[in-house]
User: Which sequence fits this backbone?
């Protein structure tokens, strides 16, 4: 982890304007004003939100995360959190030269501390379920869970990362003071390979197939979900897939949409993420468990509270 990187709230007008530049660099934004403007970031900071920057020792801003106070629409989540209020984490970005170097992880830890200091228990944000790198951070490293799929959440976007596909999103729940999250941050779980999950009884419901051109695409789908847990396969590198064959990438989008909506409707929750291999041979899978979200997040601690 980059311990020399400094994470702190933005302070000056220049820093808020620099954050606009970081957004454009991180998300490969076009010229249509899709970045969140400095004046809005300042308003978020003034009124209980968090706009945190990642700085090198020389003072260069290389990343940011920002979110605002909001209310949830899930009555169960409000009961679990003891409050109708949540922290809505709207955007995080790292400049390309610093991506893959744990800067995002450190920004999320700082965001967690900010939210805990406010007495809140839940941070929510959206991410593209086809993006393997984001899934690994959000699910495996941070301990988030997903149980909601949003079709074309933001409409058509011109950003290079999003261009060409409907902006379908998972909504991630990060229960920041739960036993699940504390354990994940203190001692990350042992990585389990696909074969380990299958040998333990998990069911891969959509094994991909290799086409004659070497690209992997949606394969035969198991029609009924019966196992617990199940695994749903996504592209190992959707950005490379989009460059190679946009139509296949779109087919994967609609394929994963249908499967995830079916699984969530049947009571499954995304709880783990598996990725293995490198380059074109990389394969990635969501692990979904069926059962109580409360038990999954709080486990024995909440059960003890109810009986004690």
Assistant:
């Amino acid at each position: 982890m980059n311990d020399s990187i400094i994470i702190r709230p933005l302070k000056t007008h220049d820093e808020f304007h620099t954050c606009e530049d970081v957004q454009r660099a991180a998300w490969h934004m076009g010229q249509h004003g899709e970045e969140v403007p400095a004046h809005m970031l300042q308003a978020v900071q003034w009124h209980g939100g968090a706009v945190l920057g990642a700085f090198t020792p020389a003072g260069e801003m290389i990343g940011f995360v920002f979110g605002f106070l909001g209310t949830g629409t899930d009555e169960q989540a409000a009961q679990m959190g003891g409050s109708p209020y949540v922290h809505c984490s709207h955007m995080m970005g790292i400049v390309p030269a610093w991506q893959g170097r744990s800067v995002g992880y450190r920004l999320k830890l700082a965001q967690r501390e900010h939210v805990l200091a406010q007495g809140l228990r839940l941070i929510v944000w959206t991410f593209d379920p086809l993006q393997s790198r984001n899934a690994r951070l959000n699910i495996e490293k941070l301990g988030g869970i997903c149980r909601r799929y949003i079709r074309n959440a933001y409409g058509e976007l011109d950003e290079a990362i999003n261009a060409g596909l409907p902006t379908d999103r998972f909504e991630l729940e990060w229960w920041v003071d739960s036993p699940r999250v504390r354990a994940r941050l203190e001692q990350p779980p042992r990585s389990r390979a696909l074969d380990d999950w299958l040998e333990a009884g998990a069911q891969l419901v959509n094994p991909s197939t290799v086409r004659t051109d070497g690209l992997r695409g949606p394969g035969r789908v198991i029609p009924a979900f019966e196992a617990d847990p199940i695994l749903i396969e996504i592209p190992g590198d959707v950005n490379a897939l989009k460059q190679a064959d946009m139509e296949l990438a779109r087919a994967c989008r609609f394929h994963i949409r249908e499967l995830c909506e079916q699984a969530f409707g049947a009571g499954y929750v995304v709880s783990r993420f598996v990725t293995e291999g490198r380059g074109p041979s990389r394969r990635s899978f969501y692990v979904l468990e069926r059962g109580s979200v409360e038990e999954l997040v709080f486990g024995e601690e909440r059960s003890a509270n109810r009986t004690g």
The CA atoms of residues 208 and 219 lie 5 Å apart. Confidence is low (pLDDT under 50) at residues 300-308. The longest strand covers residues 61-71.
